[in-house]
Amino acid sequence: MSFEVHPDVAEVLISADEIQDKINELSKQITEDYRSRDLLLVGVLKGAFVFMADLARGIKLPIEFDFMAVSSYGSATKSSGVVRILKDLDYEITDRDVLLVEDIIDSGLTISYLLRYLEARRPRSLEICSLFWKKGEQAVPMDVKYPGFEIPPVFVVGYGLDYDEKYRNLPYLGVLKHEASAS
Ligand code: IMP
Ligand code: MG
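A: This is the predicted complex of the input protein with magnesium ion.
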């Protein structure tokens, strides 16, 4: 099958196959770690929905799902650390084993806000699984138990990540051409 890169994409940083291989590793590890526990995946919308769908199908355990939606005030390409909750959890997480599923950690401000927010609800355990994180960009130290790929500190799209709500459905992680992100 021929593979066509979107015309707005300058470079593919991580291919669809590499992403799927990494997710297989992560879901195997999670399956081992959470045997006979009470796993609840909490996805951070919108970006994590693509990753969460693939990750969850690789976890061979009974699991449940919840989602939070947040928006961080800031420019199109940088978060400010001020997070607004657009959709809260549907379920109580007290005494549950919660795995927070994120697409990408950049400054780390969004995830550290969410960790504090969830911790206050007294889960039995709380860990992070993030598919990408940007090297050297974290403003706060991060303990990511299930990390995917370390990437350079550039703006990326695809595999759930958007620019202006577009490109989330690309199966790979790419960098946009300058013209596509100039607005
Ligand atoms: P942080 O608070 O700086 O860690 O930013 C995290 C959030 O910003 C992620 O959940 C994404 O929604 C968004 N984000 C960060 N970097 C990128 C990127 O390179 N492309 C698209 N969205 C990004
Ligand atoms: Mg976003």
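Residues 16-151 form a domain with the Rossmann fold fold (CATH 3.40.50.2020). DSSP finds four helices and eight strands in the chain.
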